[in-house]
Design the sequence.
């Protein structure tokens, strides 16, 4: 009777994935490392006969993800899309391996069950005590093998569940990020290396004053709503001025304006530990101070929503 092997399949597939990891370290200069690594992973996993036979669907999904990654790079040079699809190649290759292991384990269980039935029949038909002992030994061996196969099957299912949970978490994070960008787009923010930046220009304050004009309240209220809906986010407030006047006066005015926005957020329910306020004076212009239009751009308050740091 042919018995589906489990341990050799696990060792071969694991060796293939390890080889893919080493191949990814030698990524070509023309492609992202993630794409080369994903291609190496797929090329190796598809050569395992048991995986192609027992897990054709996840293997096909891995192939489609690889094609999507290659298309994203060849057509758009979109590294983020390449990394996303390369991640799917890795996970779907892992799913293919685990699916093949699970099916092999199930087939092995069936083989063991048949062996057990044969052993029991042999035990009943043997008249001699020696024959009965031999049948009992065969039965015990078959039960041990069946128990081992069941343990492998349970481990494979647990690994598949862990991968699915990780996929769901990644999808939830992606959806949350998309919602965040949609909410912040309504505030007319811009993306920077520091995070999302909302700018209140100088007309939101009276000349030389730090009291916020009512015309700025709607934008600030949207910011309040955003911070309440995203309690893990913080806000760094920076006041800026043009270079007209004494540096000390400009520094003081920029600090007061930053604190005015700081107080507005606190008065509308945002906790103080989530907000910082700093006056930057005229040290960080965004335009020339030689023209009125440039000075107008430099008179501003910037509210930075820092990029969310990944969990360690």
Sequence:
């Amino acid at each position: 009777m042919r018995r589906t092997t489990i341990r050799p399949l696990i060792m071969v597939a694991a060796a293939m994935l390890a080889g893919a990891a080493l191949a990814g370290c030698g990524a070509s200069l023309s492609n992202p490392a993630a794409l080369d690594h994903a291609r190496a992973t797929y090329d190796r996993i598809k050569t395992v006969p048991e995986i192609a036979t027992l897990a054709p669907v996840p293997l096909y999904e891995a192939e489609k993800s690889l094609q999507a990654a290659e298309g994203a790079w060849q057509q758009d040079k979109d590294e983020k899309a390449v990394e996303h699809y390369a991640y799917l190649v890795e996970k779907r290759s892992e799913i293919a391996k685990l699916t093949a292991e699970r099916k092999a384990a199930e087939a092995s269980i069936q083989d063991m069950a048949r062996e057990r039935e044969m052993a029991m029949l042999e035990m009943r038909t043997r008249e001699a005590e020696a024959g009965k002992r031999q049948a009992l030994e065969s039965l015990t061996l078959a039960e041990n093998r069946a128990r081992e196969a069941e343990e492998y099957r349970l481990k494979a299912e647990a690994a598949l569940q862990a991968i699915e949970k990780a996929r769901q978490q990644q999808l939830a994070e992606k959806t949350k990020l998309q919602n965040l960008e949609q909410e912040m787009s309504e505030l007319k923010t811009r993306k920077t290396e520091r995070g999302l930046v909302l700018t209140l220009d100088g007309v939101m304050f009276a000349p030389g004053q730090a009291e916020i004009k009512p015309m700025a309240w709607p934008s600030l209220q949207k910011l309040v709503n955003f911070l309440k809906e995203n309690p893990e986010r913080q806000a760094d407030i920076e006041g800026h001025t043009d270079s007209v006047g004494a540096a000390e006066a400009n520094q003081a005015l920029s600090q007061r304006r930053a604190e005015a926005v700081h107080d507005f957020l606190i008065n509308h329910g945002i906790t103080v530990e989530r907000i910082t306020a700093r006056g930057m004076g005229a040290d960080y212009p965004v335009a020339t101070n030689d023209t009125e239009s440039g000075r107008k751009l430099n008179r501003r308050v910037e509210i930075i929503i820092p990029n969310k740091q990944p969990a360690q």
User: Anything to note?
Assistant: The domain at 186-306 is CATH 3.30.1330.60 (60s Ribosomal Protein L30; Chain: A;). The chain has two domains: 7-181, 186-306. The chain has nine helices and five strands. Residues 129-185 form the longest helix (57 residues).
